């Protein structure tokens, strides 16, 4: 099968390489010409523009988009809308908000262009381990694209699936990432507690390794925790600043709309916000209030 990959960042490029290895013909384009040239060294056919890329594709044209959510994906889809024909297929493999995906699908449908939203998990490890793919769209289109999904997944019959109509793939990936927030926070808090118990002089990397085999809390995230602690046991030089890319916010907002309690994910998101404040105003107020009602001393900056 011949298809285009637009967005050859680390993850997009690795996906392209995996498809090439599986025998698919991949045409690649990225705004960064250097990454296109590097991808060409591994079998991806380079393209200097979106126009050239579209022209090189047979019909129906299949385009897999791996670009950031928001304006980048919106502008790209608007550009493609003028260059594609009825029957062509656009696959959004990025972390788009599912309601935006539904709106884009409706826009493309006006020109009878098919849209498939694929929540994609696996990160930089996907090249060797395979990707987890949560797919939304018309059943017949997903079936047609099956060879692509089988090549990207950990195995042809594992790690991927058609989860529902347009928007459902990105919705499921949104919830996936919300769960990820909670799991990461739980590991972080547990290891922080052990780090504080100085009297035992615990080797945190050793403990991560012990837990990685046979333990009920073993996971890939725990394996990555072990890797991080092996490379830098005291995490020196790393700021206690945790960004979020939006999926956690969307998950919490959806839960509020549906009157669904998800306290762990909500708390994990709030903790990320807190990590970015060098001197939280709320903590200063707490100190001040203790002084106001009890005369407790205030520690000055």
Question: Concise description?
Answer:
With 301 residues, the protein is of the alpha/beta class.
Please provide a written account of the structure.
By secondary structure, the protein is of the alpha/beta class. The protein is 51% helix and 13% strand. It has 14 helices and 8 strands. An 8-stranded mixed beta sheet has the order 3-2-1-4-5-6-7-8, with helices on both faces. The longest helix has 29 residues, at 168-196. The radius of gyration is 23 Å and the shape is globular. The termini are far apart.
Strand content: 5-15%
Per DSSP, the total helix count is: 14
Low-confidence stretches: none
Structural class: alpha/beta
Largest sheet features: 8 strands, mixed
Order of helices and strands: EHEHEHEHEHEHEHHEHHHHHH
Distance between the termini: 63 Å
The spatial strand order of the largest sheet comes to 3-2-1-4-5-6-7-8
DSSP summary, beta strand count: 8
Portion of residues in helices? 40-55%
Mean pLDDT: 96
